Amino acid sequence: MATQEERAMADAAAWLARLQRADVSERDGLEFEAWLAAAPAHKTAYRRTLAMWHEFESCTDEVLTELTTQARHETLRRTPTRRGWMVGAGGAALAAALAVAVVPGLVTEPAAQTFATGKGERRKITLADGSMIDLNAETSLSVRLTRSAREVTLADGQAIFDVTHDPARPFTVAAAGRIVRVVGTRFDVRSRQGELAVTVAGGKVRVAPATSTAPGRAFLLTPGQRLEVDRAGVEQLKAVDPEETLGWRIGRLVYRGEPLANVVADLNRQFEHQIEISDPELGKMPITGVIVVDDQAAVMARLTLMLPIRSVPSQRGLLLLRK
C-alpha cells in the first residue's frame, strides 16, 4: 500500500503534467492552488517533483533509453545510477509516476500556450513551474516553458507576474520590442498600442531592447521603480508605489495626473457600453484619484465628481461633455 508521501508525490507529478497541457484553464489553476493549500506535504511534494523533473531534463536521452528497456525497474533497483536518489522515500513507483506524467514532454519541445481575456474580464493562471500570471481585461499573451527557459510574449494588454525562483530557467517577457528578464520576482507589464510600462513590486527586473541592434538602453529595475517607453522609444524611469499599479487586480484603478483620454481607454476595456469624449482638449484634462471598477453607472458618477464633466447617452454608449 502506498504511503501518504508516495501518494502526495504521485499527485504532484500528475499536477505537473496537467499544468503543462495546452488547454490548461483558470479552473485548473484554482484547483491546483487549493491542492497546495490542503496540506503542507503537498507543497513539499511539488517542490521535490519539480527538482526531479529538472534532473530528468538534464539527462533526457539516458532517461528515454532506459524507459524503453523492459528491465528498467530491475536496473533502478539493483544498480546505483546518477538517479539513485529516486529509489527510496517513494521508491521506483515514484520515479515511474513522474516518468509517465512528464517524460512525453521531453521528446519534443512544448508548444506555446495562449491565454486571452475579453472586455471586463480578469483571469489568473498558474504555470507548471508554480509561477502565476494575472491578466487584465483585453489582454493576450502566450507562454512557452522549455528545459532552459520560461518565455512569455505579451501581444497586447497588461499582466502581473509572480515568478517562481529558478536560476536555471530565466523568465522573460517580450513586449513592445523589449525583453523583460527575471529569475524570481513580482512585477507588472503593460503593453498598449506600442507603449510599454514595467513596474517592479519585488526582486529585480532587467528591461532591454529585444535585439542588440534595436534602439534603446538596458535598465535594471528594483522595487518601487517603473520604466515607461512611449511609441517614439523615449524612455522614462519613475519612482512609484507598486501597489497602486497592481491595484487593477482587485478592481482599483489609481491615477496620478493621467490624461482623461487614457482613463477612458482603460474603462472602455472594462465595459460593453463604450465611453466617448466630445472634445480632444477635454481628453487632455489630468485626473488624480482612485476609481473602483464595479457598476458602470457608479463609475461614471464618481468620475463626474472628480472632474468638471458630465455624461449623456450616445449611440455607442456614453458621451463625456464639459459641465
Task: Outline the secondary-structure elements.
Layout: H1 4-18, H2 26-38, H3 40-58, H4 60-67, H5 72-78, H6 91-102, H7 104-107, E1 113-116, E2 123-126, E3 132-135, E4 140-145, E5 150-162, E6 171-175, E7 178-182, E8 186-192, E9 195-202, E10 205-209, E11 219-221, E12 225-229, E13 235-239, H8 242-245, E14 252-259, H9 260-268, E15 274-277, H10 280-283, E16 286-292, H11 296-306, E17 309-313, E18 317-322
Report on this model:
By secondary structure, the chain is of the alpha+beta class. It folds into three domains: 4-107, no CATH class; 113-242, Jelly Rolls (Sandwich), CATH 2.60.120.1440; 251-322, 3-Layer(bab) Sandwich (Phage tail protein beta-alpha-beta fold), CATH 3.55.50. The protein contains eleven helices and 18 strands. A hairpin with a 2-residue loop joins β6 and β7 (178-182). α1 packs across α3, α1 (4-18) packs parallel to α6 (91-102) and α3 crosses α6 (91-102). It starts with a helix and ends with a strand.
